[in-house]
Design a protein that fits this description.
Layout (H helix, E strand, L loop, with lengths): L5 H6 L8 H29 L8
Length: 56
């Protein structure tokens, strides 16, 4: 193992800048879009099958 000086340690960079909060927000957006797709698909299917609830 090589011993590094403080100057060398300060120059080391790495990792990602994506935090857990950003990942969680992206997951929530994807889940929202998926649920909206299911609702839209269900509505289209019900309209095409003429299986709508009466409004009266």
């Amino acid at each position: 193992m090589q011993i590094l000086s403080n100057n060398t340690l300060e120059q080391i960079t790495g990792g990602t800048t994506i935090s857990g909060t950003v990942i969680s927000a992206l997951k929530n957006i994807i889940e929202l879009l998926k649920d909206a797709g299911y609702a839209l698909g269900s509505g289209v299917r019900r309209i095409s099958e003429n299986n709508l609830c009466p409004l009266e």
